[in-house]
Amino acid sequence: MFVKESMITAAFLFYTCFSPSSAWSQNHCGNELISLPMAWCVIEGTRAATSPNIAGATNTNDLLWNRHERPSDRILIPQALITLRSGILGGGLSFPVIPDPDTTVGKTGDLQRDDGGIEFNAMVDSCRAAYQSLGLGNVGLVAVNANHFVDPAGKRTNTTGLGGCPIYVTGPLQGQCSSPYRGRVVVADNSYLHPSSPNRCLDGGTPPNCKTWLADPDGQTLAHEVGHALTLGHESDAANLMFPNAQDQNVDGLSDNHVVVSAQKNIMRLNACNVVGAATVGQQTEVIDVASFEIFDLQGEFPSLRPDQDIKGVDVFISAHDPHAGGPAQIIRVNLLGNVGDMPGPTIFWVLIDADSDASSGGGDVELAKIGSPPTVLEGVDFAAVVALESDYRLGARRQYVFDGFAFAARDPEDLLELFQVVVTRVSEATSPEIDSSGNVAAQNLPVREPRLVSSSIDFVVPRSVMPTFPGNEQRIQVFSFDPKRGVVDRLEVSSVSPVVPDWPTCSVEAGWHNPGEQVSVSYQGLVPDKPVHILFGPDEVAKGVADGSGAGETLVTIPENARSGTRLVTIGTDGTAYTADCFIRIE
Questions:
Q1: pLDDT digits over 463-510, tens only?
Q2: Distance, CA of 431 to CA of 575 (rounded, Å)
Q3: pTM
Q4: Torsions phi, psi of 242, nearest 5?
Q5: Which of 87, 133, 188, 318 is the most exposed place for a label (fewest CB within 10 A)?
Q6: In this structure, how many other beta carbons lie within 10 angstroms of the beta carbon of residue 25?
Q7: What span, in angstroms and rounded, lies between the C-alpha atoms of 437 and 159?
């Protein structure tokens, strides 16, 4: 039955890192530790893929795993109660190694940073596709371990990372990461940053007479880019994590601008709450109720297809906390190859959904024809929406748009005539500012880099009161892009999707505060059955064990005598894999 009060929202997404300018909806994560999945990929040809060897990590899984554990334990948990965890869950036990999308500039693994975000987004999309093939599409913050960042001539730059998330640039949610979240970071190979790396030389030099970056033992580079990916902007205080350059405050040769102030903590936690697969970690680990599925589409498969009409893929999310709908909602995100508004003439998009995979309920071609939908082989359509977008040159602004559209929901083929308004928030996409390890340069003297628009996404937000789908339910979806003069110009073929909520392995430590030298019991569940595990406090291994036939176990662990006080990360991982259970311990 159609619900008249409901709305569909279309939104365009902008990748940058400006600070929010309006208040976020109520924080549904409370004050507990937030576990934020990292969907790591490594570019082939980088040292992380070919010769991993940092701080005792001599395989790619351990190297990337430890890379996010150091800033978790030393920077993010103490100041923001956020921990980064492995995003691997079933379907594969290792972080994916993916091809370099452009080997024409620089060396294999290098990222061309001044191409308008093309290679940056290609790396991220390739990583997302790798996770989708593992059944994990859309989960967590996408993180890519690349080699160097290079200029168009292939010369190394001083950039060591890029990070950002789609943000809303107008409306009541202005400045906040889009919901659902789509953050990403790309960072230089840690062999150039970590002080224990056997060769930190840049440009193929030979130690000790070679150029190096400031050593980064705590993962400040990654933490900085995660800050951008959670909407933090740059700060002028040289001690702050978000200062644009790595800093050595005490002249010991190590970067140490790690400070996170209260306002930054609040922004990071509020955005982390909306990451697909994020969990709150108390005495029990509870995944925030967000499920997802991702469908990729061919690009440029039709002749003379405009980039702003070329569907790159579609994401399907089911969320319990969508701020647009004021509660549970399903979001269908249409990702485009180009930026809407770059071309003259309207761009029209249709979304059709069979929410219950039942061809006998809902509408078909006859009913859809009444509202002008293109013909489809999809039967039993329970929800359809259309939005038309066109640059309005009369307003004298290139990126002002005229929006028009409507939607219908049908549980009965006759109930197709109710229309409701399409509410549109304009957002666009670009890569975000970077961290630069070239030296002590004052933030205010750095050049300001304007985001470069490279593509767009459109969100159709459907309250569950209109289409009551739930995680695990199979549904079928089709999307069209339509040109009034040419008809259908691109289509996502009918695809079956079944969004599911991630079910992470978990662990726990005896409740209460503990002392260095004390023995504590650490239990874990959901790891690989009958396989050895290793247990870490922070990034340091403290014990080994073996999971039983159900992937569970319990091990008595001695807290190191030199253990730092406060809330500390505890991770149990199946040996030789990226499969982990994450929890915490409090040390006095």
A1: 777 777 777 788 999 999 988 888 899 999 999 888 878 889 999 998
A2: 36
A3: 0.83
A4: -95, 15
A5: 133
A6: 17
A7: 7
